[in-house]
Structures
1.
Amino acid sequence: MSEEIITTYCYYHPDVETSLRCNHCEKLICPKDAVLTDTGYRCKECVRNQQKKFETAEWYDYLVIFAVTGVLSFLGSLLVYVIPGFFRFFTIFLSPAIGGGIAEIAHRSVNRRRSNRLFQLAALAALLGSLPLLLLNILGGFDLWGLIFQGYYTFSVTSAVAYRLRGIRI
């Protein structure tokens, strides 16, 4: 007796052969439709449905996180702006830590509610909060080292906030 080989095709792309299944709904999925999660591969539809359960932000959380993150980012940039000469070098080490602290405070300010848009808004607020002193450095009394360290602060704080608060990405 010979074994018959059954060819299986992707649920979403019927012309693509596959043997991979979503570990939630058991649909056959091709690599284009597979999303790697902590528990294995899932189809994009199951990930979206699961993600909806985790988006718990209220409408006012957007205002709160924007204000908190923007103000804290500005205060951090003020710290970098007033650090004298050689000590500005420590901005390289302080900025990512400041960004992580801002992200933690911002997340607690909204009672740890979640939303991808909420976290994107926090990153935007971190960027906008750090820009005034960067622009002041450019427009008033151009200081090259001050500009470099202020620019580094802006980049690293925005990156740290975005990284620390990001959610599931599809």
Note: The chain has a mean pLDDT of 88.
2.
Amino acid sequence: MKLRNVFLSGVFALAVPMVAVAEAANLDQLLNLVKEGQARDNAEFEQRIAEFQGSKAKQEQLVRDAMAERDRLEALSADKEEQFRDNELVVAEKQAQLNDRLGSLKELFGVLQQVAGDTKSVFEGSVISSELPGREAFLTDLIRVAGATSELPSIEQLERLWFEMQREATYSGRIASYNADVVTPSGETTQQQVVRIGGFNAVSDGKYLNWDIESARLIEMDKQPGARYTDGITALESASGSELTGFWIDPSRGQLLKIMGQSPELGDRVDQGGVVGYIILALGAVGILLAIWRMIVLNIEAGRINKQMKTESVDEKNALGRVMAVFNANKKSDTETLELHLGEAIAAEIPRLTRGIGWIKIISVVAPLLGLLGTVTGMIDVFETMSLFGTGDPKLMAGGISQALVTTVLGLVAAIPCVFLHTLTNNRSRALIMILEERATGILARQSEQQQAKAA
């Protein structure tokens, strides 16, 4: 403390002369200024000493107060710890008494909790929840109560659980009509009239609906199954009372409908064939139309030939009539010359009777080759995909192979009817040609007999 006072005095003593030198005009004034500064500094120093002594006593009192508060809190903490140990013993004793009183009921509540959980899962996945929304909230509270140790389920809760389970079983055997929110494929939610068939399916406006567990809403399938399965929806929606109608149900509660919706239809299969597939179908259509046209022409020609066979008058609007016209024009010729003229007339009729039939045969041969071409190019794409993505995904390879084989199927579909129609039209034309040849042979035979009779 003395050293500190000496230090402070030295500092003030050095500071005052510096100021005095700046203000004094002579040495006497400087001396007086130094004396006055020392006196003033001593007074300020004594004042600071007094303030420090007073502040020190106050800080010591605060420390004593803090230590007293600490001792009080430590004593209170010790009391609370002892009280906590006593309460733990009481709680353990009460818990043992509760377990003794519950007995087999505790096991019953465990089973009740399990049954409530299973029932909740059934309700969340059941399409009946679209007609009875919010019923699983009660089961959530019941599961919490049944799992708690300090709270017991009430009789009303147990009775309601039984009621909800019985109602689920009852509604599963009904066909009901009601209004519900339906999410369309575009994402819009609309209020629609829904027909529910037990716990299997729900339909609306001629379309199947799926129950979505996550959103707890009915969602319209973006891709409906074939018309074979959707034709009965309209009849079901318009049925009333005890009227019976046929309808397809999904026992898997929507899974089969999703699979059927993902299955490609005829148009999708054709699209898988690509450009080659469309070329094959176009060729098949041309072959079939060509065969139909030739069958119509040949049948008309056959009718005219049959009519010509029943009369001696010559009608040059049919092949046989034109052959007979050649005979009439060359009656006076010898047999060899007449044979040449008749052969020439028949040869002129053959192109008319066989016109277009060769193209049907060509199409029946080219269509499978185009199908094979599409298959080969498709398999090349499959192997390129395998080289890029590996063989870890069988679905990727199976889909590519399926698309590659579609062209083969389309080629066979186009070739089989063309082969059949080619055989049919070819046989029909050959039958008409044989009639002309038979008639020409008969004419030559009669001409030869007449000439022999004249010679004799």
Note: DSSP finds 13 helices and five strands in the chain.
3.
Amino acid sequence: MNNYDTPEPINLGNGTAFSIRDLAEKIRGVVGFNGSIVYNTSKPDGMPIKSLDNSKIRDLGWLPHFSLEEGLAVTYNWYRNVV
């Protein structure tokens, strides 16, 4: 970030898109939740998959060091230790 000097936000990520269902399943695995995930199918689906453009940060030489699952696990464990 020493080389980034613009006011626009910059996206971090590995460039892989996940559906909300996939993300919910990954979170369930990380936190060890064994219950079912219930979706409100009476509401519109919205965007099935959204992938962020991370080209700005990659152009600065940054590469992700964690998979989504690893990042979720690190964040969850940090939160458990803080709260």
Note: Residues 4 and 59 are 10 Å apart (CA to CA).
